Amino acid sequence: MGEDRILLEGMTFHGHHGVLPAERELGQPFVVDVEMKCELREAGLSDDLDKTIDYGEVHRLSREIVEGEPVNLIETVAERIAAAILEHHPRVEEVRVKVTKPHVRLGSTPIAGSAVEIRRSRA
User: What residue ranges do the domains of the chain occupy?
Assistant: First the structure.
């Protein structure tokens, strides 16, 4: 298999994840980046959507998870997104998911954001 990849970057959704009660009650934005490793030659040569990954479907799965059941950790959000993509899209051999919680505070110091990034594959 080549090094073909599909990237969906900067998908922003409103979720209620976190350990703090305010995070659960008010919610906050979460930014999701997804990179999927899959063979794209056939899609490129045939111009056939059935030979590639439907970006809208990956966006919908990501939205459902971020806007769905609250969890404590963004690690859990990332795991659920990766698992859903691998389950629903057999053409994807490997997926990288990055979930960012923008504008967080660590103590009294604001930072641009905290993030986790995971890679999962069928192997």
Answer: 5-121
How many alpha carbons lie under 13 Å from residue 13 in its C-beta half-sphere? Answer: 20
- Tell me whether residue 101 is one of the annotated catalytic residues: yes
Task: Pick the catalytic residue from 37, 51, 98, 101.
Answer: 101
**CA distance linking residue 2 with residue 40, whole number of Å:** 9
CATH architecture of 5-121: 2-Layer Sandwich (3.30)
pTM exceeds 0.85, yes or no = yes
Q: What is the pLDDT of residue 20?
A: 85
3-state secondary structure of 72: coil
Question: Cα dihedral angle (78, 81, 82, 88), rounded to 10 degrees?
Answer: 180
Report how far residue 34's alpha carbon sits from residue 121's, in angstroms, rounded to the nearest whole number: 13
Q: Please, are residues 36 and 53 in contact by the beta-carbon 8 Å criterion?
A: yes
